[in-house]
Amino acid sequence: MKVKDVIEYILEIAPFKDDFGEIPKDDAIVFGDGNTEVQGIGVTWSPTVNVLKKAEKEKLNLIVTHEFLFWGYSETVWFNSGKDIMGKRPNALRHKILTENNMVVYNTHKNWDAAPGWGMCDAFPDLLGFEEEINRGRFIRVHKIEPTSVLHLAEIIKQKMKIPVIRIAGDLQKKVSKIATAVGGLGQIYGIAEEPYKLGAEVLVFGEVVDYAVRYCVENGMAAIETSHVLSENPGVKNLANKLKKQFKETKVVFLDASFPFNHVI
């Protein structure tokens, strides 16, 4: 079995839809050759140095990643960004592991997010125990639950995700029953709360979120709960790993956890 055979299957179960816009040029093999014979598959949120070291130890030569491989050049006035991509230390470390182990990296994103029933957008509310979907956008999901306070909801989410701390904005005692989820990095979009608000949500549960998006929630009368970018998307990563295991039974497939990166001082 070759790398291109695995990619063909992924695109079959997570197709690009017409309303996704243009397919990004880096939604492709970003390192290595599609004709490479697959010895083992690692499925991960991000191909960090630690993730690639795990893949090396497990003898996995195909990495399927949700996030980008190499840090790029930023054309900005705010800081000096180096144009030598491989001159950036994290990139050089990743490149060394990939080269020494003849690895291939396949990056795929939006189609994985929106894959019906098992992609990131559906897997996140599943993890949180939300069962009654009442509305949806392209990537936003809205579920109905039994009325509870924002604070109690946050405590439940914290337990479900096994996360040490989460951030909450808005009225903590407000009773809510219509919960929107914005998985992963959707909260990095300043105005993302506009759609959940129009879809009737009373609280928006984010993966990762910026200050502006939180304020948009609060000024719309909604509460905001931030969890974690990686932990909110890991359920979708695990789902793909399980699908690949079932499809390619003779091939070793491993979920490679990119891990929650923070410690906290309270």
UniProtKB/TrEMBL annotation:
Binding site for a divalent metal cation: H66, D113, H229, E233
UniProt keyword list: Hydrolase, Metal-binding
GO molecular function terms listed in the Swiss-Prot or TrEMBL record: GTP cyclohydrolase I activity; metal ion binding
Secretion signal, residue range per the UniProt entry: none
The UniProt record lists the keyword Metal-binding: yes
Keyword Metal-binding set for record: yes
Pfam families: DUF34_NIF3
GO CC annotations, alphabetized: cytoplasm
EC number: 3.5.4.16
InterPro entries recorded: DUF34/NIF3, DUF34/NIF3_sf
Enzyme class, spelled out: hydrolase
Similarity section: Belongs to the GTP cyclohydrolase I type 2/NIF3 family.
Protein name: GTP cyclohydrolase 1 type 2
Organism, as annotated: candidate division TA06 bacterium ADurb.Bin131
Lineage: Bacteria, Bacteria division TA06
